[in-house]
Predict the structure.
Amino acid sequence: MAGVTKAFRQSAMARTGGLLLALLLAAGLAAPWLAPHDPLRTDLSQRLHPPSLDFPLGSDQLGRCVLSRVLFGARVSLFASLAASLLALGAGLLAGLAAGLGRPWLQALFKAALDIALAFPGFLLALVLAGALGPSLTSLVIGIAGASWPWWGRLARGLTLGAKEKEFVLGGRVSGVRGLRLIRRYIMPQIAPPILVAASLKTAWIILAMAGLGYLGLGAQPPTPEWGAMLQESRMYLVRAPWLMLAPGAAVTLSVLGFNLLAEGLRDAMQVKRARSW
Amino acid sequence: MPEPLLSLEGVSQEYPHPSGRGRLRALDGVSLRLEAGQALGLAGQSGAGKSTLTRLILGLEAPAGGRVLWKGRDLAGFSRGQRRELRRQAQVVWQDPFVYLNPYYTVRNLIAEPMEVLGTAAGRELEEKTRELLDLVDLPVNCLEARPHELSGGQCQRVAIARALAPQPELLICDEALASLDLAQQAAVLKLLARLRQRLGMSYLFISHDLAPLAWLCSRIAVLKDGRLWEQGHTAAILAQPAHPYTKALIEASFAAPRLTG
């Protein structure tokens, strides 16, 4: 992990991405204090106002403040994306480690499971899973995690297969190291940095998928402010009130950009470091 | 006659050929005996099958033919518990400490780990023994927090030796343990190994392509070429009258430049 923090400090790109994400998360956390209005309060007399002093980003078709909704939406969208990402990462990592380090039959079993799961197109699988579980944010999180864990599994398996062939892993085994200690101290330090970079990239994908599925009406239900759902509601007013689409659209774009910058920056910095020390 | 510590009986090993066709014979009917307390030198150039032999003795691979006996018992029939006991009793120092030592560890972790996982020491005793081992291989205490890449090759190999000695093994295999070091470090590590053997009374299996350190450290020598044992016997006898032209060539190559012999 020391390598990751060092890479983070070295790379301006990673720092920019990190800063962007920190700001977005902070904005979500501080939404009750930052938002000028209640994100759920409707007032039909104030509908479809263009941006003004009272409504800095305009108001929507029900007279709700768009800025307030985007701020509160950060809580829903970002935290749901992170939850889905962590869930998928956890499941995929376990499967990948089992497929790389387990007994031969276990390896074969997990490899087959991963191959089968990978045969389904991710976005479609998420759609089916989230749809089958009923429209709610939780089912969307489960659907997206369920669709993306095999991707993690494959990555973790590949990295593990390479990591366990390192001579020092053999050196550890000869000294009696095995089981969890072998995974924690010999395998994980090798595979964690690339997995972290991939996690950042994949979370960007998950934010997009989340917004996309929210746009299709899955996930958070009205009146919950969620960026994807906001985009969907805004499409009828594309011409009359384009600010409705711009605000959540920009929020999605900025968070995806943040994760991508973080990932790219870390990757570059860590590759430079590798070339220097080996 | 007491059981030898280690004996190999007609051991063969094969691997799939790199070309994908046929099998590659790495070892062919090798028979060896190593008595407790003895130092046996195994000479041979790269590709002779030396490292395969190491892996077979450590029980990391099963031989394709023949038997590997540890204290008279076949490794093939070892239970999990016996294998674990073998981990404690037979240790190895590899060629390149930089690739065989966990780069994420400090020297303290590296030396303490075998005692932790094999349960031979814990707590305060673990710390004391770690320091003792560090002292035993002539490294200063301020090395404890260093990581392998911060040490020189010689220092790093000393850490590897300390780690191998931590479980108090009965057999120490040195698989080309000097090959990655420069000449001055080679001499120092070789002297250290000789001193440790005197002090701790372990058996050594010293594997090298260079006969000079073998001759200096070992009472018996075996010569391995292309997976077969060409000759073995007392060091002095083999050096004086090599039976095989290959051994003769090896002697000439090893002693052409006079060094390490003093």
Observations:
- Chain B has ten helices and ten strands.
- Residues 102 and 110 of chain B are 7 Å apart (CA to CA).
- Residues 6-255 of chain B form a domain with the Rossmann fold fold (CATH 3.40.50.300).
- The longest strand of chain B covers residues 23-34.
